[in-house]
From TrEMBL:
Gene Ontology MF term list: RNA binding; tRNA pseudouridine(38/39) synthase activity
Superkingdom of origin organism: Eukaryota
GO cellular component: cytoplasm; nucleus
Top EC class for this record: isomerase
The protein's Enzyme Commission number: 5.4.99.45
Species, as recorded: Coemansia pectinata
PANTHER family assigned to the protein according to its UniProt record, in alphabetical order: PSEUDOURIDYLATE SYNTHASE, TRNA PSEUDOURIDINE(38_39) SYNTHASE
UniProt keywords, alphabetically: Isomerase
UniProt cross-references to SUPFAM superfamilies, sorted A to Z: Pseudouridine synthase
GO annotation (BP), single: mRNA pseudouridine synthesis
Protein name, as recorded: Pseudouridine synthase deg1
Annotated gene: DEG1_1
Length: 229
């Protein structure tokens, strides 16, 4: 519309009429129900889903084998090698171990973190020797039962393995495995114990090597010599 030829009075009347028209109209957003409506499905979809609790690791599904670990450590920041009792047994013991850290405490934390042991009291643990607070060790040996990549086998499977020439030393049966027969893997196919533990241990403690040992091996009493300097 061309307002250039309208008089001043006519323009004022036009504006007043437009104000009256606009004043009688409600805002569009108030009547637009499509914008403000939320369906039940929308509400449910935005509700955060409950996370499932982590599944407990089933140690009974995995056989164990006895091994010896050779490791080294700088003991300057630790209260000796030996822990006081089972360091992870209770919250009280964990607090003591946290305040007075030991080399063994760190090792057992790593073993538990890697799911190699279920608890300290049932792994037939033994150590070669002790070192005092602040003392380092560069050839310490411990022995214990740890989780293996092997498998439980039946008596029939034992006979079949022996018949096809499997080394009899790879088939074990002991109390730690509830008397069940276990077919152990070859060393090169076993769990990478050294890498697993070194990733979980602090830099001051390093696992150097591991070796399979007989069930009656004891790191203390099977030791032939010790060297201190």
């Amino acid at each position: 519309m061309d307002y250039s030829r309208w008089s001043k009075r006519a323009l004022i009347e036009r504006l007043q009429n437009l104000d009256k028209i606009v004043g009688t109209q409600e805002p569009a957003i108030a009547t637009n129900t499509d914008i403000v409506m939320v369906t039940t499905g929308d509400v449910e979809s935005t509700t955060p889903k409950r996370s499932r609790p982590p599944m407990k690791f089933d140690f009974s599904s995995f056989p164990k084998r006895k091994v010896a670990f050779k490791f080294s450590y700088f003991g300057w920041a630790y209260h000796g090698l030996a822990r006081q009792g089972n360091a992870l047994e209770s919250e009280e013991k964990r607090l003591v171990e946290s305040e007075f850290p030991t080399i063994e405490g760190e090792v057992f934390r790593a073993l538990a973190s890697c799911k190699l042991i279920e608890d300290e009291s049932s792994c037939d643990y033994s150590r070669c020797g002790r070192t005092d607070r602040g003392v380092s060790g560069f050839g310490q040996v411990i022995a214990l039962y740890v989780r293996s990549a092997g498998q439980y086998i039946s008596d029939e499977e034992v006979e079949a393995e022996l018949a096809k020439g499997t080394d009899a030393s790879r088939i074990t049966r002991d109390e730690q495995n509830g008397g069940r027969a276990v077919l152990l893997p070859l060393v090169e196919r076993e769990l990478p114990y050294v890498n697993m533990l070194n990733k979980a241990l602090p830099p001051a403690i390093r696992i150097l090597a591991w070796s399979p040992v007989m069930p009656d091996f004891n790191a203390r009493f099977s030791c032939r010599s010790r060297f201190y300097r």
